[in-house]
Specification:
By secondary structure, the protein is of the alpha/beta class. The chain is built from 8 helices and 13 strands.
Amino acid sequence: MRKKYFLFVFGLALLAGLVLPVFVGRTTASAKAKAITVKVGVMTMDDEAKAEWKVISKYAKKHGNVTIKFVQFTDYSQPNKALEDGNIDLNAFQHYDFLDNWNKENHGNIKAIARTTLNPIRLYTKKGYKSVKELPKGAQIAIPNDAVNESRSLVALQSAGLIKLKKDVAEETPTDITKNSKKLKIKLVDSSQTARSLGSVDAAFVNNDFVLAAGLKFKSAIYVEPVNKSSKQWINVIAAKPNYKKNKAKYAAYKEIIKGYHQKKVKQLIKKYSDNTSMAAWNLKLK
């Protein structure tokens, strides 16, 4: 009886030894996500963006078998159109206010699906001024000519005490200036060109995407937009088409990209490259 029992147990053990490796192998293969490529629209990448997206790409590849393919743009008007047309899957270049304004003007419904950074806009000069107080009467100030950043720059000039604007205006323009004691001359320039205009104007607001490429340093700015409760509209986001959850495989890939972005390593890189002047916004509390 004992001999038969022993042979029976031995047989089960031998069978388990033969079957188990096959079972484990199937489980591992099924657990591994299928390879997927996600096209992400960004502005022309500087060293900061390259460093951050390298970390994000590595995470997405490791945890979701996601390959990120970057499509770079030079004009702010392009990435949302490309997203809407299906030429890219996501974009990461704009803040809430820019997205809301674009949707209104283009009858779009692109959605913000994750927060990325908050980058206060800054005023730069190459004329040797150390602060906005030193700007002379009649100084020429270059500001971006797109509606959102034009308004944002004017509000920043008001915060700096240089001008006053009409109240309750949705998107301020130079015609909304009610007080201009220094008689500043506002020059509207394409966002990608405000840095180049520094050779001819007294000061210019330069969007953060173009600061490093223009050879400027974040800390050299003579004025920085204050960060407060109203700054929420300026938080940058990752955006997708409204039906982004419909394709389950891509939606899973998007979540891995977002997790990759929301890493401590990326937060550290944001601080490093911006001289601690920009900030990670995914868990930012504004006061």
